[in-house]
Structures are given as C-alpha cells and as structure tokens.
Amino acid sequence: MAKLNGPLPRVVIVGGGFGGIAAAKVLAGLPVDVLLLDQRNHHVFQPLLYQVATAALSPADIASPIRHILSGQRNCRVVMARVEGVDLARRVIDVGGAEVEYDWLILAAGATHSYFGNRQWEQFAPGLKTLEDATEIRKRLLLAFESAEYEGSEEERRAALTFAVVGGGPTGVEMAGAIKEIAAHSIPADFRNIDTGTTRVVLFQGADRLLPGFAADLGERARRDLEKIGVEVRLNAKVTDIDARGVTVGDEFLPVRNVIWAAGVQANPLGRSLGVPLDRSGRIVVNPDLTVPGAPNVFVAGDLAAATSAKDGSLVPGVAQGAIQMGRYAGKVIAAELKAGGARPRRPFSYHDKGSMATIGKGRAVAEVGRYHIGGLVAWLLWALIHVAFLVNFRNKVSVLSNWAWQLLTSSRGARLITGVAVISVKLPLPDDRVHARAGDEARRSL
Amino acid sequence: MAKLNGPLPRVVIVGGGFGGIAAAKVLAGLPVDVLLLDQRNHHVFQPLLYQVATAALSPADIASPIRHILSGQRNCRVVMARVEGVDLARRVIDVGGAEVEYDWLILAAGATHSYFGNRQWEQFAPGLKTLEDATEIRKRLLLAFESAEYEGSEEERRAALTFAVVGGGPTGVEMAGAIKEIAAHSIPADFRNIDTGTTRVVLFQGADRLLPGFAADLGERARRDLEKIGVEVRLNAKVTDIDARGVTVGDEFLPVRNVIWAAGVQANPLGRSLGVPLDRSGRIVVNPDLTVPGAPNVFVAGDLAAATSAKDGSLVPGVAQGAIQMGRYAGKVIAAELKAGGARPRRPFSYHDKGSMATIGKGRAVAEVGRYHIGGLVAWLLWALIHVAFLVNFRNKVSVLSNWAWQLLTSSRGARLITGVAVISVKLPLPDDRVHARAGDEARRSL
Questions:
Q1: Which residue among B416, B419, B426 sits closest to A68, beta carbon to beta carbon?
Q2: What is the 3-state secondary structure (H, E, C) of chain A?
Q3: For the segment A349-400, what is each residue's pLDDT rounded down to a tens digit?
Q4: pTM metric for this prediction
Q5: Distance from CA of B190 to the nearest CA of A (A)
Q6: Mutate to test the interface with A, among B33, B51, B80 (most CBs of A within 10 A)
Q7: Which end of chain A is more exposed for a tag (fewer CB within 10 A), N or C?
Q8: Which residues of A are less than 8 Å from B61 in CB distance?
C-alpha cells in the first residue's frame, strides 16, 4: 500500500448508522486517518423510529449529528456525501464524480424497503427507514383522522378510519399497536363527528406467526396482546395488491386509505458495484471475517452484509446489535493489524444475541433475553430502560424520557404535527349538517 | 339573519393563530356554533420560531394541534381547510369549491413575507413564518457549515461562512445573534478543516436604528450587544439585490451563500376578496370596532388587520399581543350581542401594550415594559419566563425549558438535523489534502 497522503493509513467508513459509528469509535486514538461518509448529517436511533411515525417523539429526540457524535475523536473526519460505487481493484470509492482512496474500507450503508418487485405499491404504502419516512407516515396518519372528520359518506369514512400494516416483524407489531393506541386513547376528545375509538387496525403477516425472529410463544403472546387492545391480526395473509382504494389479500379486498409497509428490506444498491455475489436481498455475502471475497481490506457491517456467525452458523439478524457488533469487529481487526504492522490470522466473527424485544402498546411488550421469555409490563419496562440507555446522548435520553412520562400520564402524544404540503379535500357538508344538505342544491352546498 | 341550520347562530373563525384561538376561547360555553378553519392542523407559537430555525428547539416544542387546544370546548369544531374568499353580501366563505355560511365571521388569517416586489429573492433568502420555513432555514444553515468544511477554494469557503440577515426588527436581531452563537459556541469542535468561530454574520437594516418598535435606547443597546458577540450591524443599508452569489447594498456587493429574510410582511391575500380598502401591506383597514367597513358582523384580528387603537390613535403592532387582544375583543363583542339578543353600541378597540422584548444571544436580551427599559441578563430572564408562561400547554413548557437548560449548560443545540432532500457538491480534495491535489490530475482527483 503506497502512502501518498503522508504517514497515516486511511480507513474509509461508508455509513453513519450503528455499524459505521461503532467501527469509527473502536479506531479512536489510533495512528490512522478515519474518514466517515454519509449522505445525511445525522445518525438515527432506528429502534425508536416508529415512535416518530406515531407522533410520540420528535425527529431530534432520536437523532444526533454524526460529526457531533465523533467530535471528540481527532483522527476522524465526517463528510456529508453520497458514495456511488467502489472500485476494489484500484482501492478507491466514487463520491459524486470524485474519487477517495482507502487503505481499509468498511461498508455499512444499510438497507431500505423492498416491495418484492411491486415498486408501484410504495406511493400507497410508505415504509419506515429514515426520519423523512417517519414524518411522512405521521402526516398520513394524522390526515386520515382529519379527512374522516369531514367525510360525508359512511363508506369513505370507514375506509379513512381503517389502517393496514403489512408485515408482522417488530416494526409491524409496534406500528399496529401504536396506531390503535393513538386512535383509542390519545385523540378521541379532539374530534366531534367521528369516534376515533372505532378505528380498525389490521396487521397482515405472510407467515403463520408474528415476530418470526422471536421464540414461538412470544409471537403468540404478541398476537394475543395486540388482539386484546383491538388490533386485527391476520396470519398467513400474503398481500397480493395495494392501490389507492385498498389492500388485496388473495380473494379478499379491504377498503383502506392508509397502508404502512413493514414487510421487506433490500440492501443498499452500493453492493452491486463490487462485482461480488449478493444474496436475494442484495446483501454482500461476506467471508467469516466479514470481508468481501478477494478483498481482505474491505469489511461489510450491518444490513448490507449477509454474514454467518461462527458461533452457530446462523445468519446474523438485521438488527442494531448485529450492526454494532460487526462494526466493532471490523474496527478491532484493523486496530490489531495496525499494531502488528501487517496481516494477522483473524478469528471469524461471532454474533452474541443479547436478546430481542418489541413493544405492543402502553405498558405491554415482549422480550426474549437468553432463555427468558417475558411479556407484559415487565417486558415493557425492560424495553424502555434498554432503549433509553442506548440512545446516543444524554440530551436525547432526557427528552425521550420526559416525553414518555408525559404520554404515560396523559395518553397524549406531543408531536402531532402535519408538516409539509398537505391537501385535504373537504367534503361538505359536515356530517352533522346533513339535514341541510338533503334540502337539495347538490352542486354547491351550503353548510 | 335567517337560521337555516337549527337553533344556534354560527361564528366562523378563519385562522388558528393567536387571534383565532383567542376569539374561539372567549366563545366557550356560549349558545353559538363555532367553526374554526385553518389550512394547517397546528397552532404555532411564532415568537419562538427562530429557535427552531436555529436548531435550539424541535417543531413540536412550539406547536400544538389546534383541535387539541380547543378539544374541551364542545361548541367548537375545527376544520383543516383553506379558505379562498369571502362573499360579504351573501354571508358565505369559499372553502375549496364549497361554501360555508356564517352569522358572524372573524378573519384572523395572518401574514406572510413580502419581498417588496422582488419575488425572485425568495429562493436565495427564505423568510420565517411557518414551521416549514423554520426547518428549511435550519437545513440551509447547517448545510452551509458542511459545505464550507469540504470547500477547496478559500474564497468559496469564506462565502459559505458568511450569513446575511436582512431586516433589523426582532426576528432579524434574534436570528443574527443565534447564528453567531451557533457558529462560535455550539459547533466549533465538530469540524476539522474550518474554524466556525470565524463565521461572519452581517445584519442589514434599512432604517437608521435596530428594533424600530422599541424605544431608541434599546435599539442602540441591541446594536451594541450584537456587535459585542461579533455580529456586524449595518444601519441605513437598504438591500438592492439578492442572487445566488450574494447581497448588493447600493454600490457594495457582499459575497454570501446564506441570506435570511426578516424584512417585510404582506397580509394574507384573503383580504383582497372582500372588495374593501386595504393598506400598502394588504391589510384590511378596519373600523374602530375591528369590523370590515359595511359589515358589522365581520371582524378582523391580528396581522390581517390595519387597526387603530382608541387609546392613542396609534396603529396596533403586528405582534402576538396585538392579535390576542383583537381576537378576544371580537369574541367579547359577539358574546355581548348574543346575550343582549341583538346589536348593541360597541366601545372601540383599545390596544394595551404589555411590553416588547427581543433576545440577542445566550443571556442577553432587551425588554421594554411600560417605562422600564431593560437589557442584558435581567431582560433575558424576563424574556424566558414570559415566553415559557405563554406556551400553549404544559408539555411544550417542560420540553422548551429542558432544551434551554441543556443549551445553557453545554452550549450545544439539540435539533441539528438536516432533513429533506439535501445535495452538497463535495469539492475534493479536502483542504488538508491539497498537497496531493497539486500533483496534477485536475479532472478526477484522488483524495
């Protein structure tokens, strides 16, 4: 490796999510030039993203500027830029027409939604990966109640007050529970013409159980708890079409105006530029040491990697813990070889499952920690504790905690803002003025 | 007034700002059907909008859903809809193709920016009236530092690190002070290639003093305090052009990438549909009882009204207190005539100036309360106290207070998110790699 740029070797990290940040932190204080690139200026604490989408938290509560997170680390520079591709042979990455050399590379660019080849569903069924996704879903959710309030036809009102969530993993379960909770507890007093408590939330899951990543009894517990709070859970229900009118599952058609997509993920397309084998979801199939085949200086961490754990040969799951452990592993390998002054034998990556959890509603969750399977309030307290503990900084922690406390005490949700362009077609007359409407004058009714 | 819709007369309120909400609250519990229309679902506490624009607070901290504010008031319905026009003769308002009848009408639709006939300046110099404006300004502000960090040319970097604020009223003063504070105290440690402390903030004011609505000594105090923290104040400086390269003031051209418009306001165009005299800013010139000439049942409150106070014959200023007092006055007149069962002699509207204040930076403000003129920390504490006290709900108060406490302790600002689409053209090489760049290969440089 020729060092053109002075004495320090360079580690380029692509992506400021859990994997990228973890890798950068391991390299703190070492004689290496770390360059972290991300197209956004902020790291997002993804496990709480659904709380932004459901108006419980503000975007800033779960995000932090990447350069602020790493500001104390003098050997690390953060660049806000989009990486277009990687040239393994020449050891450069392509950044919008310019090239950046690397000695080591850590690819942690993550994943986005996949509509399984039905890209046209996206406009009707937004997914939840970024803060912009979350505020878009929040807008649609709040607008649904607004439009139902003015809706003249009973049929249309029913469709506006029906929500479909597609996908029964943690995001789907959490969104379904939170939407039902908003409708039943947070907002009923705000409306005059509709009873938001009658809102239908239908959760469609293609498999025969919820939460496939959890033990079977917890999936069953989640289903029971969701049904207890009024969510309709449909197992073995593969969605075959989504359009402006509703959702189709085989022969069944559900008229619904609001669909949330929580079903599939697709790795960042950056992987395609490498010319190495990808799995069905576009993830890079990595070596046991998380490197790209044929490139021992290029690591992949997080949702962009199809990695196998040396512990039990299982696939490393696409969760925050997986990304953090992979990022840290890559950083440690680099640190060790820097210290040794050259290549060393590498122990394969092992994933340590610290547990999984998903919330279902106020004071209800499921958690799997080792051989313990926990449900209800205890699981929820554990969930809250762990999620606050892992938030990036103290300010986020304080803000999230005080928002939650407020919500627990009042059932109110603070961030109920419809921002951006919002167009509602007001169907006048309002329902309670129908007496007047019946008098005739269909074209231009008076209220 | 024929009552077509059952027994209750109807009051329609257009706008959920300070004026509209105040009017609605006065009508609580009265035998009247109140309909409040706003094109947004939320009320914004405008005096703190500049803090969202400068990343100190989140949008949800200073906003509340209008229907939530009025949820306890059973005689009031809130409709999210845009009002297109008013037909005074037929007593109806036009809501996107439908018509809504009124017995009484309160117009409180507010104002937006005015570029004094130079609409083309808007793209380079956004104004600050809505939450979307605030997050757009926040984005530009944060992107300016990001792009300066990567900028290869010293000249370009200087322009990226120069901010021009146009307008020396409270918004201009507060924005200028806050931008300087961010640059000098909140973010220096986050950057490697630039010293954000060298950021220039230039405040252009067309008049010969700052804060024309305040006493002369406070305008002078604001100027001194701004200069103390490093803001360049240019009095008698009328901006004659703004484009992508910078700001022109007469013969002088300042290369600047970031301009914030805080100079002029223009009333909501709704006033034009009335066919009554408007003032130069498009405001409706109202009678002493705030009604539209020739329409004793139509009131105007807030920034849409050009109103004169009976107390001293002065124009009522376009501030929150003015809107609140006007809205409350209109509500009380209606309440009194409802009680009396018909028209009554009306006492003309009198504006009670409770004082004015503007912040300059951390722990610095100016305040004018009756004959007391206060500056520095005391004024700032007073400002903080009053603004928190007037925030809409308890949750907003807690959130704003804790954000401020955090900021005072750490100089950090929590909401430093660049959201929405952001494109930075990264100029490689990074400044500290220039050694390598000089080697040639101008077309496709390596870092």
A1: B416
A2: CCCCCCCCCEEEEECCCHHHHHHHHHCCCCCCEEEEEECCCEEECHHHHHHHHCCCCCHHHHEEEHHHHCCCCCCEEEEECCCCEEECCCCEEEECCEEEECCEEEECCCEEEECCCCHHHCCCCCCCCCHHHHHHHHHHHHHHHHHHHHCCCHHHHHHHCEEEEECCCHHHHHHHHHHHHHHHHHCHHHCCCCCHHHCEEEEECCCCCCCCCCCHHHHHHHHHHHHHCCCEEECCCCCCEECCCEEEECCEEEECCEEEECCEEEECHHHHHHCCCECCCCCEECCCCCEECCEEEEEECHHHEECECCCCCCECCCCHHHHHHHHHHHHHHHHHHHHHCCCCCCCCCCCCCCCEEEEEECCEEEEEECCEEEEHHHHHHHHHHHHHHHCCCHHHHHHHHHHHHHHHHHCCCCCCCCCCCCCCCCCCCCHHHHHHHCCCCCCCCEC
A3: 999 998 899 999 888 999 999 899 999 999 999 988 888 887 766 667 777 7
A4: 0.88
A5: 5
A6: B80
A7: N
A8: 58
